[in-house]
Amino acid sequence: MILVTGATGSVGSALLRELRLAGAAPVRGLTRDAGRASFPEGVEAVAGDLARADSLQAALEGARSLFLLSGMGAEAEVLASARRAGVEHVVLVSSITVQTHPHLAAAGANRAVERLLKDSGMAWTILRPTQFASNALWWARSIRGQGVVRAPYADIGLPAIHPADIAAVARAALTEPGHRGQTYALTGPECVTVRRQVSAIAAAAGREVAFTEISRDEAHRQMASFMGDETADAVLDLMGGDVNDELLKVRDTVARLTGAPARSFRQWAAENGAAFR
Ligand SMILES: NC(=O)c1ccc[n+]([C@@H]2O[C@H](COP(=O)([O-])OP(=O)(O)OC[C@H]3O[C@@H](n4cnc5c(N)ncnc54)[C@H](OP(=O)(O)O)[C@@H]3O)[C@@H](O)[C@H]2O)c1
User: Fold this and answer.
1) Does the Cβ of 188 fall within 6 Å of ligand 1?
2) Which end of the chain has less Cβ packing within 10 Å, N or C?
3) Atom of ligand 1 nearest to the CA of 131
């Protein structure tokens, strides 16, 4: 049995499809609201909250592999419960910031979870993806409402990754030999500026989208109101304020591990045009 956490999210939902297509072991998807989940046929929906390890007993029962998102709150207890329940291998979604921006608080938190997993006694595979293409959904409301994107760092291009490619690597790690004890930095196939992302979304949505570049200060004011000062600063650094060669580097990991080229931002936009209409 493979337990997939974040099963309603962008990576987890793609992973459920990948695992069903591969005809892998039985698959169970975790969500906090099993009544609302609509999983592919054959996937068992199970309720549980990663911030409360005591809620995961049913989810972990019989699980031998675990796909785990980092940053949900109670990783030490979740990993201890997984070990006690008989999980043998954990594939963890961490973040590339562990190696590109180790000084940031979020990177330190991910590094700590990686360490907990390595010390857990279970086999491990660590995925360190870069910025997700699906982060562009942040713009969906203003595109739908006003046909506009206002964002900083218009001409900085990062190698954003399609969430389905993270899922494809996770599927390989969960079902094929050779991935235990490995840490994989994952990126998309090319660097794409914010300006080009907006054009790709406009083309996919079949509508005009105006783009206005705003200053870091203006973006910070907007973001800090709902994520706080420190997180807003960190996110803005990663968007363009403090990028470095390691963050800008395009890696071939997805193609190497899955046998298929990494999907482009344009492809992600084409698949998600409806969200911006
Ligand atoms: N966005 C990026 O650029 C980026 C970059 C590197 C790493 N990451 C990592 O990627 C992960 C996010 O993946 P994603 O984009 O696929 O997710 P997503 O689409 O944002 O969806 C969030 C998922 O997490 C689940 N979740 C949230 N809180 C939970 C809790 N307390 N207990 C159980 N499940 C919970 C939600 O499930 P329910 O609502 O159904 O319970 C949902 O499936 C995070 O670990 C993040 O740190 C993101």
Assistant:
1) no
2) C
3) 3
Number of folded domains in the chain? 1
Domain that holds residue 124: 2-129+162-186+250-258
Domain annotation covers residue 19? yes
CA distance 161 to 186: 7
| pLDDT tens digit sequence for 37-67 | 999 999 999 999 999 999 999 999 999 999 9
Indicate if ligand 1 lies below 6 Å from the C-beta of 69.
yes
Single pTM value for the model: 0.98
CATH code of 51's domain = 3.40.50.720
Which atom of ligand 1 is nearest the CA belonging to 50? Answer: 32
Burial class from Cβ neighbours inside 10 Å (0-12, 13-18, 19+) for residue 271 reads middle
Residue 52 three-state SS: coil
Instruction: Identify residue 152 by its one-letter amino acid code.
Output: P
Cβ neighbours of residue 10 closer than 8 Å, sequence gap 6 or more: 132, 134, 163
Is 34 within a domain? yes
Q: What is the CA(208)–ligand 1 centre distance, in A?
A: 30
Q: What gap in Å lies between CA 39 and CA 13, rounded to an integer?
A: 8
